[in-house]
Amino acid sequence: MAEKIKVEEEVVEETANPFVEGVRRVLLAGVGAVTIAQDEAEKFVHKLIEKGEIAEKDGRSLLNDLAEKRKERAKESSKRVSDELEKRMESLLNRMNIPTKSDIEQLSKKVAELTKKIDSLKEQK
């Protein structure tokens, strides 16, 4: 008779950053809301076409316009989220006393300027 082999599965829990997890949930909720709104708009337009209240061509045009506006709003929202995320990350780095990319770039420019001045002073001597 066959023996039963007990296999234990190891469950690995990922400890995600609460901030990143919050952003992810907000974005997923937004995507879900947009999808639902788009579906409802399509159903509504199809009902209007079936009832003969609008022509099929006009219905398609209306749905295309809605899709274009949705894309524009999505781009705007993405930009706002990106800007806000960048501000919060910069604030977090400041609190942790970690220099940002712009801080490092500014220091690099100053070092380059000072190097040029030192070189010119060496040449003058």
Gross morphology is: elongated
- In total, the number of strands is 0
Strand content: under 5%
Structural class: mainly alpha
Determine the N-to-C terminus distance: 96 Å
Characterize the biggest β-sheet: none
The low-pLDDT segments are 9-14
Total of helices:
3
What's the Cα radius of gyration? Answer: 29 Å
Q: How confident overall, as mean pLDDT?
A: 79
Q: Order of helices and strands, N to C?
A: HHH
Fraction in helix: over 70%
Topology:
Blueprint: H1 18-51, H2 56-95, H3 101-124
Helix pairs in contact: 1-2
How would you describe this structure to a colleague?
The protein is mainly alpha-helical. The chain has a domain at 18-98. The protein is built from three helices and no strands. The chain has helices at 18-51, 56-95, 101-124. The longest helix is centred in the middle third of the chain and has 40 residues, at 56-95. The radius of gyration is 29 Å and the shape is elongated.
List the main descriptive attributes of the protein structure presented here.
single chain, about 120 residues, mainly alpha, 3 helices, about 80% helix, elongated
Concise synopsis of the structure shown:
This protein is mainly alpha-helical. 78% of the residues lie in helices and 0% in strands. The protein has a domain at 18-98.
